[in-house]
Amino acid sequence: MGLKNRQMSCNLCSRYDEDLFKQELVSCVRMFFSKSMVSVGGGNHSFRSDKKDRIWITPSGYPRSHLEP
Fold first, then answer.
1. How many domains in the chain?
2. Whether the predicted model's global pTM rises above the 0.90 cut
3. Deepest of 18, 24, 26, 57, by most Cβ within 10 A of its Cβ?
4. Whose CA is closest to 50, among 3, 7, 16?
């Protein structure tokens, strides 16, 4: 899957309800990790809702394989 397709897949989650939004964030982070695009626990990943009233951020230093929605 090319970078453009990954971005599009991740951007789609902004239309879902909160639970699906969180599941999509975790799914994207796991996919990035499985493709060695991110380290085990460094940095954060975040999504912002279309309405810009909510943002979800993964914790720094937490193993990507242990993330849960």
1. 1
2. no
3. 24
4. 16
